[in-house]
Amino acid sequence: MASLADGGGSGGIPTLSSELPAMFDGVKMAAVATVLYVIVRCLNLKSPPSPPEVSHQDTPLTRYLLKCCPLLTKEYIPPLLWGKSGHIQTALYGKVGRVSTPTPRGDRKLLPIHDGATASFDLFEPLVDHCTGDDITMVICPGIANHSEKNYIRTFVDYSQRQGYRCAVLNHLGALPDMELTSPRMFTYGCTWEFAAMVNYVKQALPRTLMVVVGFSLGGNIVCKFLGENPANQERVLCCVSVCQGYSALRAQETLLQWDQCRRLYNFVLAENLKKLILSHRDSLLGVTTSSNISDADLSQLCAATSLMQIDDSIMRKFHGYSSLDEYYKQESCVRYIHKVTVPLLLMNSFDDPLVHRSLLAIPRTLSEKMPNVIFALTQHGGHLGFFEGAVLFPQPLTWMDKVIVEFADAVCHWASGRPPRCTESPAELSQGHADKMAIAWPSVSALFHC
Known about the structure:
Layout: H1 16-42, E1 53-56, H2 60-68, H3 86-95, E2 107-112, E3 118-124, E4 136-141, H4 151-162, E5 166-171, H5 193-205, E6 210-216, H6 218-229, E7 237-243, H7 249-255, H8 263-280, H9 282-286, H10 296-304, H11 308-314, H12 325-332, E8 345-350, H13 362-370, E9 374-379, H14 400-417, H15 427-439
Parallel strand pairs: 4-5, 4-6, 6-7, 7-8, 8-9
Antiparallel strand pairs: 1-9, 2-3, 3-5
Helix pairs in contact: 2-14
């Protein structure tokens, strides 16, 4: 009798060895199919390009601005192979900032603050005249622990200069590697003191300039809070643009501890970077005077921290004497002040931002539905401060975000000056638009937002 190993002759049972190659081929094909499926899902390759979801009231101002800002109504097209992944957009922004980064040259200004701190900002002059002929200064607040030397800031400043804008960029207190602290305090989530000092300097040094306020991420919280804190802060301000902020730290703290969209991992990475920055100023923060609220025990807790909330609780809230983390987050979040902003306000977020939980987007959406000066633009893709554009693989130096901010600012400048841009139909319609603008009532909605 022939054995099974021999196949039992021509009419015998097939051997195991003859089936193995086919089995291995099937496993390989299944593995390849699985990998391709995961890639397609993770990179969202099946997601078609789409225009931003824009929420606003129907007013002469918003109709005018949307007509003059076609980027807000056209498709945003990220790079095909990776641009639809919020994680890759965020990681590329965090690691590279931007590609082919220019090197604008500015003058660094140092400003004393009432508590002994020294604020600093860089002032960049425009490279051409603005299209309206007016003197316009963009006052810019970067993201967490950022400053004027960051690549994404340099790219935006260079582009703005070439469109006729002067740029003033705040360097967050303690963020510059070559500048020591002069008081036992660093930047915090919602402290507006340094930004206010920069704005006041611009107003005094340039009495004829008008201002466009721009904030990125944490900077978006600061600029919106600054404008809403005091009506006088909005004098000579044409408009404000906030990009990728979370609006309420009190609501966001729980979401940053969740693992979906890897937020807990991002939280850890940001905490590690902030921890290193704080420890680099250990001597200044402990101080030689009795005014420091930070002790050696606080720094020991800092070393063990694995989240931004732990760092805020052990260090950041104590700079301003808050008794609890919840009190700190509640008082320093712009959600308590943003309803008092009456200048045109563009709030921009990305649906796939891994840092800003989708539940937080109800805040700007509700605000845009209740206030006639607010436009909320939500893209499907873009990550956190990514918004790269490109064809297949390589991104362009300028991002969708850079272009939208300048396009919106240009539109508001034309609206304010009465000089019709190319988007207007006729001088008569422009004049009617300004008559309508003067009739717009800006209702108070202070009861809408409570932390």
